[in-house]
Amino acid sequence: EPAPEAPDRSLTLRQVMTHPFFYLILPGTVAPSIIETALFFHQLTIAEMKGWSAGWVTAGYAVFAVMTTLFSMAAGPLVDRLGAMRLLPVILIPYVFGILILAYMDDPLWAWAYLALSGATGGLRQTIAPVMWAEFGGTRHIGSIRSMAATLSVFASALGPPALGWMMDAGIALESMVIGTVIYIVIASGLIWFACAAQLRRRDFA
C-alpha cells in the first residue's frame, strides 16, 4: 500500500529542531556515526583482541562498500512504495546482528560478516534518512534541515573514538561494550518507531 502523501506544508529548521519528533529519532539517527567511527578507528586494536589479521580485516572493507551500495540502491524502490517513515525504524537492525557477531564470533570469516551487516545499515541510512526529513519537514527548507542533520552526524562521529578508547583503557571487556551498545540501539530503534508511528497516524487523519 503506497504511503499517504504528506500535507502541503514545510517546516523551518527552527520548527524541526523544536519538534518532539526530532528528539525522539536523534539517538537512533546518530548511532551509526558514533558506533561505526569508533569501531573503524580502533579496528586494528579490535582485530588484535580477536586474533584476526589486520590485513584480513582491512580487505573486508570491500565487502562493506559493496553492501552499502547494494542496500542503498535496494532501499530506493522500497521508499517509493512504503515511504521513509515506515522504513526508518528498521535501519539499525542489521547493525545489531553485526556487532553481536563482532563480540561473540572468533573465526576470521565473521569479521567480513560484521562489515557486511554494517554496510547494510549504512546503505539503508544513506537512502532512507534524507527522504525521511523531506517527508517530515517538507522540501522548502530541506537544504538547511539536511545540513543540520549532517552536522550532527559529524559531531557524533567525533565522540565515538575517544569514548571507545577510554573504555578499552579502563579494561572494559569487548562483550560488555557490545551488550551496552545493543541495548542503546534497541531503545533508540523503539523511539524511532514510536515517533514515526505517531507522525503516520497524524498524516492518516489529517
Description:
- The protein has 206 residues and is mostly helical.
- 81% of the residues lie in helices and 0% in strands.
- The protein contains ten helices and no strands.
- The protein has helices spanning 13-17, 20-41, 43-50, 54-59, 61-82, 84-87, 93-104, 109-137, 142-169, 174-204.
- Helix 2 crosses helix 9 and helix 2 (20-41) runs antiparallel to helix 10.
- The protein is globular and about 55 Å long.
Topology:
Elements lengths: L12 H5 L2 H22 L1 H8 L3 H6 L1 H22 L1 H4 L5 H12 L4 H29 L4 H28 L4 H31 L2
Distance between the termini: 18 Å
* Continuous helix count: 10
Which strand-content bin applies to the residues?
Answer: under 5%
Largest beta sheet, briefly? Answer: none
Low-confidence stretches: none
The number of distinct β-strands equals 0
Binned, the helix content reads over 70%
Quaternary structure annotation:
single chain
Features:
206 residues; mainly alpha; globular
Quick summary:
With 206 residues, the chain is mainly alpha-helical. It contains 10 helices and no strands.
